């Protein structure tokens, strides 16, 4: 394998500076030392050797406002190499076909890249498909998801959608990104300005004041904290947003801030230019700010409260910008910057003393690689790292001009600025990709860089959140005030009356007798358990009561109504064997669903949700998603949902059957408390004899198919029960009777 040696240069890392040679074998840095030899010598005398730049924020060939950004992955990455950047991270914007379909489109676009590349995935809405596809995106090597808090009616997501996505990110080990601007306020200000006749490019800045960015940054930080996930805020342009990040980091929150080189060096006076084209070319979001914000951004980079510098390279030609003549809201947002980021930052940062050379490397490469979980493959000059190296001449100068740039746009927002400090040679994975003004890397030579999930910040935050999560205080029943679990007094009125009921299923193999000659009366306020061997028709009988199955013969009344009338009048709530919660809805949203169907007003829905969550001991969990709760907690949430419209009875089909014994015991106690408070009639299907005896006032013992009632056993165990009652002779006697009833019923029918 051919080797290269870079000799005579000074290595600048994020944490130290030293003179050394660098030996490259193929794509990889093989050795760092002195007097190294190789097949090809690259002279770096008088130059610095720095890790190739990584731009974490680009939009190449991006659809936006009815057009596409003018730089594709060919011209955009050529500009990057000319500026010392060897990797870009672009944004995938999904359409109606979902995340994976959009990702495939972006892979096709990126086939022209001359640098290595990776992607962030945008979340522009919320539904089950997005929920399901996010882990698959992570499997494809993408560990970040972008959320727009701006662009109302297009890309913007609301707080509920953002919290759902952030929580999903926490679950799959990914990190959310946000464009932090209050889209609702921006939309209002835009319409107000247009109505007043203020329609030029300068109005763009007026419509997006620093306050809307600061508010959104604070809101995103709070949502991320509650979701238990790190947060990356893109294009931080003002002190209000920076202050939110600084304050969060001081509290130990994992929040990262990304200013752009444009916001560090250009200001809002650019929009006051009398030339409409000049001003419109500089329209981007957030807009350029008053110069007073720049000192704080530079200080943030030096102190570490801001970690990276990007470009948000999203270039539109002058002709495309003219779409907004007469209406500033139609000016495509975005500027260039890939070729200029590192020279401008070196000139305005290192050469002015705002940044050290090491800090420059940190904010243009190393910190980015660490945050995106690709360090030390990228962002480092170390043995084993990719040989992405820029040979930087600190004394080389040029005047920035659109006439000499590699980008496809016809202007440059940094036009006329003289920069000192330029790449002499840029190596991408060991190959000379740029040298002395010429891009040498062929179109399509770039590679996709996979980024693993569960970066160190994710792992640390997950551990902390687990240790500090709310935990219920477990108390000895002896320390619970007497009567807290007392059994309600039964109301004598029959609420369920079944007479001579039979059910025959017709199958391809002939008729199957599921139920035969069932007669049963249930009083209001009773807790009745159905127990029997598998296939005896317990669940089938419950489904007949619920009008989910139709009997072949016999009659049944529920609250003096037919089962169909009872269902239409919502006389009962049904709890299934599985919790059956919608994963894309919060716990509160799941409980709200039947109320929404009933058109219950929002305020009343909120009241009922709070009341029922308190009943099942889940107060404070309404903003959580099902996957954040244990199996037992999910079943309690499903009970709360069944209670949401205040039915007269609960029909429960083995709701605790899949849970371990400890959790099951706990939920049995919780269910007794709930029953005591609500005075509901409960019909409960179970396979467990101890569970049936502990919970019930009456146990219906069923025999095998065709299902018949073998025996009805009263549970006269008093009005107060704790788990200790299971050791009493009275309890054991009833359990013995149930067991004998099951055995004799089974033997008789066989």
What does this structure look like?
The structure is a single chain. Helix content is 34%, strand content 22%. The protein is built from 23 helices and 29 strands. Helix 21 links the parallel strand 26 and strand 27 (681-686). Mean pLDDT is 91; it is low at 488-492. With 750 residues, it is an alpha/beta fold. Helix 3 (128-139) packs parallel to helix 4, helix 18 packs across helix 19 and helix 19 (602-615) crosses helix 20 (631-642). The strands form 6 sheets. The protein has a 7-stranded mixed β-sheet with strand order 3-2-7-17-18-19-20. A 7-stranded parallel β-sheet has the order 8-11-12-13-14-15-16.
């Amino acid at each position: 394998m051919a080797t290269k040696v870079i000799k005579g240069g000074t290595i600048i890392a994020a944490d130290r500076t030293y003179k050394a040679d660098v030996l490259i074998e193929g794509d990889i840095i093989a050795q760092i030392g002195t007097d190294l030899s190789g097949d090809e010598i690259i002279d770096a005398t008088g130059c610095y050797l720095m890790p190739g730049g990584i731009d974490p924020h680009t939009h190449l060939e991006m659809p936006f406002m009815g057009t596409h950004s003018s730089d594709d992955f060919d011209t955009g990455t050529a500009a990057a190499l000319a500026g010392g950047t060897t990797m870009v991270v672009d944004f995938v914007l999904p359409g109606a076909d979902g995340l994976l379909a959009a990702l495939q489109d972006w892979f096709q676009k990126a086939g022209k890249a001359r640098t290595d590349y990776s992607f962030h995935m945008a979340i522009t809405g919320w539904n089950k498909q997005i929920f399901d596809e996010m882990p698959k995106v992570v499997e494809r090597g993408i560990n970040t998801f972008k959320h727009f808090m701006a662009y109302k009616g297009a890309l913007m997501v609301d707080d509920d959608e953002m919290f759902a996505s952030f929580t999903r990110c926490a679950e799959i080990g990914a990190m959310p990104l946000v464009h932090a601007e209050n889209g609702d306020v921006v939309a209002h200000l835009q319409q107000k300005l247009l109505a007043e006749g203020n329609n030029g490019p300068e109005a763009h800045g007026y419509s997006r004041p620093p306050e809307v960015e600061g508010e959104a940054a604070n809101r995103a930080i709070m949502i991320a904290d509650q979701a238990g996930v790190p947060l990356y805020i893109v294009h931080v342009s003002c002190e209000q947003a920076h202050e939110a990040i600084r304050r969060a980091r001081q509290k130990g929150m994992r929040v990262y801030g990304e200013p752009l080189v444009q916001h560090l060096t250009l200001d809002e006076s650019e929009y006051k230019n009398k030339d409409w084209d000049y001003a419109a070319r500089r329209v981007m979001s957030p807009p350029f700010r008053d110069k007073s914000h720049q000192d704080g951004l530079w200080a943030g980079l030096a102190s570490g409260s801001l970690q990276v510098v990007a470009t948000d390279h999203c270039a539109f030609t002058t002709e495309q910008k003219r779409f907004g003549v007469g209406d500033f809201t139609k000016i495509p947002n975005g500027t260039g910057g890939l070729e200029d980021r590192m020279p401008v930052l070196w000139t305005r940062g290192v050469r002015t003393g705002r940044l050290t050379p090491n800090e420059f490397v940190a904010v243009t490469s190393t910190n980015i690689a660490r945050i995106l979980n690709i360090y030390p493959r990228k962002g480092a000059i170390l043995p084993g790292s990719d040989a992405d190296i820029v040979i930087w001449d600190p004394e080389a100068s040029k005047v920035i001009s659109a006439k000499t740039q590699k980008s496809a746009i016809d202007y440059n927002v940094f036009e006329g600025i003289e920069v000192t400090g330029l790449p002499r040679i840029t190596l991408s994975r060991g190959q000379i990709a740029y040298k002395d003004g010429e891009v040498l890397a062929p179109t399509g030579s770039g590679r996709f860089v996979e980024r693993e999930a569960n970066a160190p910040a994710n792992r640390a935050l997950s551990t902390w959140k687990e240790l500090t999560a709310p935990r219920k205080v477990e108390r000895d029943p002896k320390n619970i005030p007497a009567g807290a679990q007392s059994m309600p007094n039964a109301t004598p009125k029959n609420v369920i009356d079944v007479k001579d009921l039979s059910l025959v299923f017709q199958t391809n193999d002939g008729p199957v007798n599921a139920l035969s000659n069932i007669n049963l009366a249930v009083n209001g306020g009773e807790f009745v358990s159905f127990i029997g061997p598998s296939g005896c028709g317990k669940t089938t009988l419950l489904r007949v009561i619920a009008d989910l199955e139709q009997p072949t013969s016999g009659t049944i009344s529920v609250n003096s109504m037919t089962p169909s009338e009872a269902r239409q009048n919502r006389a009962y709530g049904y709890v299934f064997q599985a919790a059956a919660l919608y994963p894309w809805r919060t716990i509160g949203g799941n409980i709200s669903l039947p109320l929404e169907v009933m058109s219950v007003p929002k305020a009343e829905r909120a009241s009922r949700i709070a009341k029922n969550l308190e009943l099942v001991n889940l107060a404070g969990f309404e903003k959580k998603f099902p996957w954040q709760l244990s199996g037992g907690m999910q079943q309690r949430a499903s009970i709360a949902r069944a209670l949401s419209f205040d039915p007269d009875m609960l029909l429960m089909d083995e709701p605790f059957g899949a849970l371990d014994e400890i959790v099951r015991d706990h939920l049995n106690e919780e269910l007794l408390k709930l029953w005591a408070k609500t005075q509901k009639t409960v019909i409960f299907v179970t396979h467990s004899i101890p569970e049936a005896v502990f919970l019930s006032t009456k146990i219906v013992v069923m025999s095998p198919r065709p299902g018949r009632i073998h025996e009805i056993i009263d549970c006269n165990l008093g009005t107060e029960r704790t788990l200790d009652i299971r050791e009493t002779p009275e309890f054991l006697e009833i359990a013995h009777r149930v067991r004998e009833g099951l055995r004799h019923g089974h033997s008789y029918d066989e």
